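Researcher: First entry.
Model:
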Amino acid sequence: MPDFDYDLFVIGAGSGGTRAARVAAAHGAKVAVAEEHRVGGTCVIRGCVPKKLLVYGAHFAEDLKDAKRFGWDVPDQCDFSWPTLRDNVFEEVDRINRAYTDTIQNAGGEIILQRATVSGPNELTLADGTTKTAKTILIAVGAHPAIPECPGHEHGITSNEAFHLDAVPKRVLIAGAGYIANEFAGIFHQLGAHVILMNRTKEILRGYELALRDRLLQISMMKGLEFRFDASFQAIEKSGDCFTVTMSGHEPAVVDLVMFATGRIPNTKGLGLDSAGVELDDKGAVKVDADNRSTCESIYAVGDVTNRIQLTPIAIREGQAFADTVFGGKPTRVDYDCVPSAVFSHPPIAQVGMTEAAARQKLGSVKVYSSDFRPMKNVLANRDERALYKMVCDGETDRVVGIHLIGPDAPEIIQAAAVAVKAGLTKAQFDQTVALHPTMAEELVLLK
């Protein structure tokens, strides 16, 4: 047998890579992890964790207004310090970065803070020119924001840079209509900016339940967000401290910040995968089989770089399955059915299972139950903002195949509901469950 430096060499210390490294080391493998940025990856450093903290911070804008109706003496104008929120978020990111680092090292893994590229089926080259060998290589490098090609695109930022702004801009144009665009639209709006959401098509949040998308659009417009549909960039011109954005089908927009949220691209460029015969798909993602193995026998890939489902919990599950299969003697595959997801918009959206349209196409006969209501807190706060819960069932078996929510705390509620959908429970079993009153979640067992 050849003598390798490591049993496993992981490129990328994000959620998937870190889990794979830790578990493989626990199984007795000699492991190294190369990371060119910071340990923790997109989710911890520049994604879901800091973004969710910004969502919490932004939500106080509404909470403080609502507090008056609940008897609190809150001034009409509350001072807000963006640097305080930003720096406290960075402090928490630093804490989790240290925790991720400790997780790998405490398991016996070695961390190499350099870029690593593949230079053969079992060989890697570090940024300083050093070469390493490994019996198995795992690609877990994630993805990066896509930037539209147009004159002046260099003037825009992505979600990566949004966390590092010196101040909250007064006028923001966000390109895109997916979850990142809608989440940052809500953040900037609550912090006082006028937000324009610009999209190439007529719809937002493609893939989510249509009724929820329509409800979010309605509420967002009621709050003052501006939408420009069927709009493509023509140019971005800088003039002083502001930018003029020209686009198809609409008048130019003058803003203080342009942010791109137009999808994410796997980080495979320049990684040297061709040197080992690793094939990529037309999006640049690593092609893998059900066991996360690429077209090169010794190279595997997990997480966003495979472009299957770009969610942190999926990357973690894939990393665990890879390590258990290859190093633990416990063959494991990830089940991608009924994966819950959420949009931390204002208000948030959460769903699991099939949309009504997908269910009708796949099952033919479906039954749909819904509840359109104003949450109790919104009633007392005089906030005219309604929640919508929707349940999609197989018309033949009564099995619940999809649950879709928009309203306060929807992501918290969907996690428990996802267990029921995954377990194949029926509408009758939901109905047999006693409601917990007064809660919003009780609507799930009272749907008509």
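Researcher: Second entry.
Model:
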Amino acid sequence: MHSLYLPQHDALVHWHDLAGTGLPLVCLPALSFAAAANFLDVVCDPALADARRILIDLPGSGFSEAAQDFDHTPRAHAAVVARVLDHLKPGPCVLFGHSMGGSVAMALAAARPDLVHHLVVAEGNLRPGGGAASRGIAQQDGAAYPAGGYPAQMHDIRAKAISGQPFYGFLHASWRLADPGALHGNASGLVDLDPELEQSFLNLACPRTYLYGAKSLARNVGSADVPEPELLRARGVATEVIPDAGHFMTRDNPAAVARVLARILAQPQGHRSF
């Protein structure tokens, strides 16, 4: 694991950097998840074995420290990711963001197009409103959440994990590492998402691919993180559907996600397919 100190936030940000060749794949995780938990099954798939894979823990999530004087918006997280990539100097990358990480990836591509060769968003929020999880957290009082709402929520998640519900074991493992204040801030940042993010994403010049879980596409089209495919395709965004998967497609069907990413990584570096 690698780290970089951010003096303006008095925080260490950490990431994994798995050796490989060609275009680097940079992975940004969902709401306060550790990047390894979010992406390990994807990046360890044989389809990606030869790629350089960089998995970044956002501030206050995974192994990264909570940042001081930080507003937890996708734009603020994007600035931190840019600092890491400027430090690493990997060149333009395939930037892959899942859920909240997708919103961060969109903000980064808009602010620093020099860092992004191809943007891949897996059900990232385009519009304000958030998903059910972020809304449930954001509606609680931010000052009281770390000592009140967060322990109660984690107690409920742990009980469901103990009862044998696999997803809640996965959720418990990630959110027990998260800083509670950062978790609330991240959720609020999605609920109050910059309303200009959608148009910014649609106007990007870089190649873009949006991934849907088939189950999400069947139920939630038109929500903040499941935009209408026709809208995206009309603006030059390629779309892919991950079979047998919902919002957490990186867990539901990691091999299918890996195959899509491998195809994108294999495209010639001058490729601009829309």
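Model: Note on the second entry: The CA atoms of residues 18 and 53 lie 5 Å apart.
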